[in-house]
UniProtKB/TrEMBL annotation:
It comes from the Eukaryota. GO terms for biological process: small molecule biosynthetic process. Belongs to the iron/ascorbate-dependent oxidoreductase family. One of its GO terms (molecular function) is oxidoreductase activity. This is 2OG-Fe(II) oxygenase.
Length: 322
């Protein structure tokens, strides 16, 4: 378990002065706080994010609704059978190379809603469970839109924290890839020795917006300098933001991509939800146009997950050699 020092905790930043377009002094303070946290930890907590509490509680209700469906009903929505990798992932399907055991979690994926499958499955329609719209689709879609918009705001702040203009975000956000993953962890007492909810890893891409079920702790972040795991409490109306490997690469290492893991600390099920805001499939480093490394968002995604998931030839053809 964690060896975290009680005094070591992630910064908690109020985004409201930036989101509400307060005066320049207050906005600059937010930019500096976010930039400093991303440089030191690669992680930070936020409040004043603009996501209503009732939408957060509705998301929890909807996640329980889909995960409480029968195994047969859930497997009919398997993301492995979907060209856009939307839908249900059963427990045990996610097993990173080097981990002794698969993750103890089940997931449900959605993304931007498009009428047709496009770009080899990066875009297309979502899979929606056979539940009343108010018990899943409508609240989940409203929540997705809010966190999708928040992801762009976080990216913009990070860009400004590097001394770049805010408008730069639009250069790689014409049609960004923004998947969302709803997660349910089983009780800690039911997992095997040495098994994690999610094993230690870094996120591959851009910005992650993480919602944790209040009062149900589990997330830990590795602090490289002190060689300790920082426990990140699950607090009401507080989100956790982190930078992925792509942010670290594009920023020339100014911002960190930190390892993190999940250990369900409660003797009961635990819910969380992560929205990943990456950018356009064919985008290269917008912060340094002359960067000799021309890997695109799509290529980085395929490189990272080729050992975990199989990618069809259409995906590989779309992004090019990876």
């Amino acid at each position: 378990m964690s060896t975290a020092d009680a005094e070591l905790q992630l910064p908690l930043i109020d985004l409201s002065p930036y989101i509400e377009n307060a005066g320049p002094v207050d906005k600059e303070r937010v930019i500096a706080e976010v930039s400093n946290a991303a440089r030191q930890y690669g992680f930070f907590q936020i409040r004043g994010h603009g996501i209503p509490l009732n939408l957060q509680s509705n998301l929890l209700r909807c996640m329980d609704n889909v995960f409480d469906l029968s195994t047969e009903e859930k497997m009919k929505m398997s993301f492995l059978q979907n060209p856009c990798r939307r839908g249900y992932e059963a427990e045990g399907m996610s097993h990173r190379e080097g981990d002794p055991l698969p993750d103890a979690k089940e997931c449900f994926f959605i993304g931007q809603e498009d009428a047709f499958v496009e770009s080899a499955g990066f875009f297309g329609p979502n899979v929606w469970p056979n539940l009343p719209d108010d018990d899943f689709r409508n609240p989940v879609w409203s929540y997705y839109q809010k966190t999708r918009d928040l992801g762009k705001i976080i990216w913009t702040i990070l860009i400004e924290g590097l001394g770049q203009p805010a408008a730069l975000v639009d250069e790689f956000a014409k049609r960004p890839v923004v998947p969302m993953k709803m997660i349910r962890y089983p009780p800690h007492s039911t997992t095997r020795p040495g098994q994690f909810g999610i094993g230690a890893h870094t996120d591959f891409g851009g910005v992650t917006i993480l919602f944790q079920q209040p009062g149900k702790d589990g997330l830990e972040v590795w602090e490289e300098t002190k060689q300790e795991w920082i426990e990140v409490p699950a607090r009401e109306d507080v989100y956790v933001i982190n930078c992925g490997d792509m942010v670290q690469r594009w920023s020339g290492g100014a911002y960190k991509s930190a390892r993190h893991r999940v250990i369900n600390k409660v003797d009961g099920q635990r819910l969380s939800c992560a929205t990943f805001w990456h950018g356009d499939i064919h985008a290269t480093n917008p912060l340094k146009p002359d960067d000799p490394n021309k890997d695109t968002v799509g290529q980085l995604l395929v490189k990272r997950f080729r050992t975990q998931y199989s990618f069809n030839k259409d995906v590989v053809a779309l992004v090019g050699a990876a």
